[in-house]
Amino acid sequence: MKIVVGLGNPGNQYRDTRHNIGWMVLDRIADRAGRAGRGRQRDASESIQVRLGGEDVVLAKPLTYMNDSGIAVRKLLARERAPLAELLVVADDFALPFGKLRFREAGSHGGHNGLRSIVDELSTEKFSRLRIGIGEPGRGAIDHVLSRFQADERARLPVLLDAAADAVEMWATAGTAKAANRFNSWDLQAPPDDDEHPPAGEVGGPPDGQGIRRTRTGWRKVVPG
Questions:
Q1: d(CA 158, CA 214)
Q2: Helices and strands, number each (H, E), in the chain
Q3: What is the DSSP letter of 197?
Q4: Could you tell me which residues are beta bridge partners of residue 218?
Q5: What does each C-alpha distance from 66 to 32, 48, 98, 118, 188 come to in angstroms?
Q6: Distances in whole angstroms, Cα of residue 221 to Cα of each of 57, 109, 197, 210
């Protein structure tokens, strides 16, 4: 059984904050698998099982608050009898630009309190992690990680969450090294300027002269009214 742990804090006051992007990624994966809202609380975490690329994967959110995430991870690994090689931790990282993805097979906690707790509880740094860039603090680090995304970041957040979900699925099927080769160089594109509109007939643009517009699933004729 593979285990993906998304780091975050429980409670509505922390929902949608930068520090909770690990939870957001797990929510996106569960939603795409048709399992949204079906998590079960047990052993200091909320977890749900999904299939990713033919692999059985447990998605888990520690409910211990960020600084004690390791307690939930230790209990989860013991319950599932999973080796460290089958663990991936998804966490925010303000040392990375907003939207960057970075896989590592091992390494220090880098000052992240959730990762620090996991390292302390497991007595090892040898577990895979996917860091997601939330942008450099323009003020104190604590205020930054507990803040919500700016409007321009929120506009790109769905694309980032989809890419991170794809990255987790590739980790589950191909391993950390191959996922890193694919996604560590991935870039989140900036949104177009307000005065830049897709051309007629293209996705997001107006219909062409024949009333046809391309969508993400094919070509559609726009019916008046």
A1: 21
A2: 6, 9
A3: -
A4: 215
A5: 25, 19, 20, 10, 26
A6: 40, 53, 19, 8
d(CA 24, CA 17): 9
Rounded Cα–Cα distance for residues 118 and 70 (Å): 4
Task: Kindly give the pairing relationship between strand 218-221 and strand 128-133.
Answer: unpaired
Percent of all residues in the chain with a pLDDT value above 70, rounded to a whole number: 85
Residue 62 in contact with residue 44, Cβ under 8 Å? yes
pLDDT in tens, 162-208: 999 999 999 999 999 999 999 999 999 876 565 555 676 666 566 66
DSSP assignment of 110-138: TT-HHHHHHHHHHT---SEEEEEE----S
- Please name the helix (run of DSSP H) or strand (run of DSSP E) that holds residue 44, with its range, or none: none
pLDDT digits over 28-76, tens only? 999 999 988 788 999 999 999 999 999 999 999 999 999 999 999 999 9
DSSP state at residue 45: E
Q: What does pTM read for this prediction?
A: 0.83
Catalytic residues: 19
